[in-house]
From TrEMBL:
Segments of this protein annotated with the region Disordered: 1-23
Domain of life from the UniProt record: Bacteria
Protein species of origin: Saccharibacillus brassicae
Name recorded for this polypeptide: Aerobactin siderophore biosynthesis IucA/IucC-like C-terminal domain-containing protein
Length: 272
């Protein structure tokens, strides 16, 4: 992910069972603003979860709840127009989708994509943080990445359709923003796995295979081709998006956001 697409830093709560220095916990928290809820007898969300993450993905399918959430994000984005807010919602929500695939491919952990198993919160700059249930290894229902991708697709598509209706944003743009995030994710994971001492090295072949499988004809919703314009300033792969995310039309802390590094409106890619 290019720097402009990294989730804004949210002060996410650290539930007691997760106050450990496990690589996956830091990986999810720092890169995707996600906190996983481990499976067990008390797998249901607790009162503290609901307080810290007041919305479930299921709530987003209620037009009134979604309308209020988008209005709040609009205010945090300096009074952004509805279509801008909806488009940026998709860009931020794409981080959740990427986090689900990252846990699956890089760590072999299945985080549930079911709407009732994911809660979220809104932070500064309309950023979103997530609390996601991990599925028990005894109940895994996904024999392959394609099976898991099908569940992720169904959930994300449903949410994006709701956002499109509520905001008037372009549905194709919302879709490609999610695709761009996921395709960039896999390239970044593969590049990182090649670095000396990388904790992802043991999963390099798996991540490469998953990237190829996700982009195969069997998964048409995720299939896409993006032009490489990287590496970025940090040396990470950078892909040119098909559509602008509209962030330049927002104002945060009194300043216009400007164009992202991967934006087709940016001058940066024209120099490659």
């Amino acid at each position: 992910m290019d720097k402009s697409e990294q989730p804004e830093k949210l002060k996410l709560p650290e539930p007691p069972e997760e106050r450990q220095s496990e690589p996956l916990e830091a990986f999810l928290r720092e890169r995707f603003a996600m906190v996983r809820k481990r499976p067990g007898k008390d797998a249901e969300f607790e009162e503290e979860d609901v307080q810290n993450f007041p919305y479930s993905v299921q709530d987003l399918l209620d037009p009134d709840v979604l309308r209020l959430l988008l209005l709040r994000q609009s205010v945090l984005l300096g009074g952004a127009a509805p279509d801008v807010t909806g488009t940026l919602f998709a860009k931020r929500y794409s981080v959740l989708a990427a986090g689900l695939f990252a846990a699956y491919s890089a760590y072999g952990v299945v985080l549930s994509p079911e709407p009732g198993d994911i809660r979220l919160r809104i932070g500064a700059g309309a950023a979103m943080g997530y609390r996601v249930c991990e599925e028990s290894r005894l109940t895994y229902a996904y024999p392959s990445l394609s099976a898991y991708a099908g569940k992720v697709e169904a959930q994300v598509r449903t949410v994006l359709r709701a956002v499109q209706r509520a905001s008037g944003a372009n549905g194709s743009v919302l879709h490609t923003l999610v695709l761009h995030q996921i395709h960039t994710l896999y390239l970044c994971l593969e590049a990182e796995s090649q670095q000396a001492g990388s904790p992802l090295a043991a999963r390099a072949d798996t991540m490469r295979r998953h990237r190829q499988e996700l982009n195969a004809p069997a998964n048409p919703w995720f299939h896409a081709r993006f032009r490489s314009i990287g590496p970025d300033a940090a040396g990470r792969p950078l892909l040119l998006r098909r559509h602008c995310c509209q962030a330049y039309r927002t104002v945060q802390s009194g300043r216009s956001h400007g164009y992202c590094d991967s934006c087709p409106k940016s001058e940066a890619y024209k120099r490659t």
